[in-house]
Amino acid sequence: MSRRTILATLVTSLLAVLAIAQEPKPDDQYKLGPDSQPQAGVPEGKVTEYEWNDSKVYPGTVRKYWVYVPAQYNPAKPAGLMVFQDGGGYVKRDGTWRVPVVFDNLIAKKEMPVTVGVFINPGDVPLKPGEPPRKRPDGRPAGPKNRSVEYDSLGGTYSRFLLEEILPEVAKTVKVTSDPAGRAIAGSSSGGICAFTVAWEHPEQFGKVVTWVGSFTNIRGGNAYPDMVRQAPKKAIRMFQQDGKNDIVNQFGSWPEANKAMAAALDEKGYDHKFVVGEGTHNPKHGASIFPDTMRWLWRDYPR
């Protein structure tokens, strides 16, 4: 092969790689709107950071959590409540989700109730002296060690942690309603199935659920939920569900198919349910872009 032919082949390959790199990705279309940006004249709520290192439900774990209290909060009127799993990803005002900014804007416009946000990280296990930082198989830093145990497991253990440990701590500084219609729980991926599990186990505590790219797959048995929903009496749960057509397919199952199965079961049982399907992959861009409208739908008739 001549030098000219080799050079031409290399140029053609490089152009092909560049063309692929420049192709729009499914998630590029999803952008944050004005409700996710700070607005002039809108009162700003306060976010306070805490640590919880004395869990009896998950002994040996440590974690941070944050509490957002809106500027309109009045101790004489218990506020609504919304709990977020993987809380650190939601609580930043300049982050992907910007939940405090959205809450500020929608509460000011009376498009959602005065609502306290609780943002909880999954539990981690501290490194032992001399132990190197944990890494994933691809070399990236590992996430909190207890995340899958807490989030992907079915049953009531995480609910106990939330109801017996974290929320009583929150109640020491702020009053929230006991009305399940005024209490929501949300999460993405494994945090999404965790949110549903809490409401499923305790609909008398949480009447509203939001899941984004929820892991209703067989990581720890979550693929059983569609059948469980069909077989159980309908519960007082309103659910917003989002997924993307290009979500994960791996050894645990297909996220798009699992979410469709979950949505079908909820609809068949007559749940107050909305399922939004986009083009995205397994990331928060679509969910974050529609988060303000999700809140409007979720809280549309509360307080009654």
From TrEMBL:
Residues 1-21 form the signal peptide. Keywords: Signal. Pfam families: Esterase (PF00756). Residues 123-150 are annotated as: Disordered. InterPro entries: AB_hydrolase_fold, Esterase-like, Mycobacterial_A85_antigen. This is Putative esterase. It comes from Chthoniobacter flavus Ellin428.
